[in-house]
Design a protein that fits this description.
The protein is an alpha+beta fold. The protein is built from 3 helices and 2 strands, in the order αβααβ. It has a two-stranded parallel sheet. One of its GO terms (molecular function) is DNA binding.
């Protein structure tokens, strides 16, 4: 199947004529999810580790520097195991 140009759709969305839309200016936006986690070493000594927030800040800074990335969601793994279901019914 042949590829179809989306220049007309992009031009209409931006409100400019197709011939004024430069080919190189078309930028694909990638929805990006963050996955941050605590290691056993981070959680062994203290429960209030700032490691998760540090990772989130670093990754959000990376996304901010790349216009083709858009933050979709942030997934956090705080080191709790799924094998301990005490109190869960």
């Amino acid at each position: 199947m042949a590829r179809v140009s989306r220049r007309k759709q992009i031009a209409a969305a931006q409100g400019v004529p197709v011939d004024e839309l430069p080919k190189a200016a078309v930028l694909r936006i990638f929805r990006t999810a963050l996955y941050v986690r605590l290691s056993i070493m981070d959680t062994r000594d203290r429960k209030d580790s700032e490691s998760l927030q540090t990772q989130i800040d670093y990754l959000c800074g990376y996304i901010a520097k790349h216009p083709d990335l858009e933050l979709y969601d942030c997934y956090r793994d705080n080191g709790e195991t799924g094998t301990n279901f005490a109190g869960v019914r």
